[in-house]
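We emphasize that the prediction below concerns an isolated chain of 159 residues; any contacts that depend on oligomerization or on bound cofactors are therefore not represented. The input was used exactly as deposited, without trimming of termini.
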Amino acid sequence: MSKPFSIFNYLLLILIVCFSTYGVSVSEGAEKKTITITSETLTTDNKSNTAIFEGSVIAKTTDITLYSDRMIVSYSDAENSIKEIHAIGHVKVLSKERVIFSEEASYFNKEEKIIFTGNPKAIEGNNVITGTQIIYFLQDDRTLIEGSRVILQNKQGQE
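Result of the prediction step, given as a token string:
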């Protein structure tokens, strides 16, 4: 049985899947997918445990594509896990007919949340949801949209 339509939960799940391929556990038994990240440059700093992808960053899985100008990955070397991921500049996440735009998207592993800032906007077909900030809490499967504005287009003939 499927849940009612929720554009944000679906689109935010896209980012979760992208981020989970780095080794972040989304849920027990979640299958990790291969992700390919391309960029003009990659700088790693083992002392600060960061990897910085810059210039036309594209992160792809089989069904999801994330674009940004820059992506910073902070990791814990001792725990062999991702701590935070920040996608910065012209962030766009695509999956089939769904897309989300923002200037920044930040994933925090410890708090299990993703924050979209910088005029975040989600679009599916003619439906649009915007806000000043969108916070998705992974563990609770809950979304908080600050300053929200929702435009839903009903198709004729549907109840």
